[in-house]
Amino acid sequence: MSWGFLCDLLSGVNKYSTGIGRIWVAVVFIFRLLVYIAAAENIWKYEHDEFECNIEQPGCENVCFDHFFPVSHIRLWALQLIVVSAPSLLVVFHVTYRENREKHHNQKLYRSPGQRDGGLLCTYLISLILKTAFEVVFLVLFYKLYNGFKVPRLVKCDVRPCPNTVDCYISKPTEKMIFLYFLVATSCLCIVLNLSELSYLIFKYPLKRYLKRHNKKHQ
């Protein structure tokens, strides 16, 4: 698939992000998207072909692979990247709506269409909450689907039509586990960044209003 659209989306979001948000964009773009394209995709490319069981029973190997890998790691990672980046579209759409509204009324309605205030601030906060929720959901999904964050060298399969318990071997388990740990670490980092940005925005604007009121009283 082409990742050009996702790159354009992240570049567009970068214009309206806070400093923490720009760090999040950099982490997603460099440590997740580029690592996925450059390395991870190739490691899991032939995972089904390289999955071997010590039996020649027709259908047994395919059933065992589907049992232990109901969804491919790399496809789930790709889906995670897309879903986690999607809430950022809300911010881009809101800014576009403001720009079109100004054109329609042919007058200046906002200080700047991309300035985080009022409705756009709410949209930005919602996008942060959604991104954090999706990150957590995918981490739980990874853990449940693969029985933990690990890639074993050997798995024992007794699913029909296998006549008995057979040994199946996963190719390059150490390499795959390193990238899986990297995935988990970057997801956790993105969760921390999202929560930090959320806290910063929630406390920043009420504090600004309080200081303005306090200064007016003194004046």
Summarize the entry for a quick read.
With about 220 residues, the protein is mainly alpha-helical. It has helices spanning about 5-15, 20-45, 60-70, 75-85, 90-105, 120-145, 175-219; strands at about 50-55, 155, 165-170.
Which descriptors apply to this entry?
219 residues; mainly alpha; de novo design (two linked rop proteins); three-stranded antiparallel β-sheet; 5% strand; cell membrane; transmembrane; cell junction; gap junction
What does this structure look like?
The protein is mainly alpha-helical and 219 residues long. It has one domain: de novo design (two linked rop proteins), CATH 1.20.1440.80. Helices cover 68% and strands 5% of the residues. The chain has seven helices and three strands. Strands 1-3-2 form a three-stranded antiparallel β-sheet, with helices on one face. α2 runs antiparallel to α7. The longest helix is centred in the C-terminal third of the chain and has 46 residues, at 173-218. It is elongated, with a radius of gyration of 23 Å.
